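Quick one:
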Amino acid sequence: MPLTDAELDQLIEDLGLKRPRGGSARKPIAHGTFRGARQHRYRKEQLCQPCLDAETAYYRERRAGKPRNRKPQPKQYLTEEEWQARVAARRNGGESQ
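Output:
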């Protein structure tokens, strides 16, 4: 069974071990946020319900504006006249003839 952060800190203190340089003390998990869910996953811990809900809401919001299984549109090719009109418009700085 994995130790909680508090239990790990207490064990390190009881054994008289020193923390590695650079202040590697684990930061507390930001429960109920997408960041908290990422922290759980990084530590290979099971997500708590608030973090799972936050992660689900985040991904749902990201996918909200994207249609599913959209078929690609066929390419529209220009006729020679349309192409020449675009080229001429570019040469004239956007002015139509």
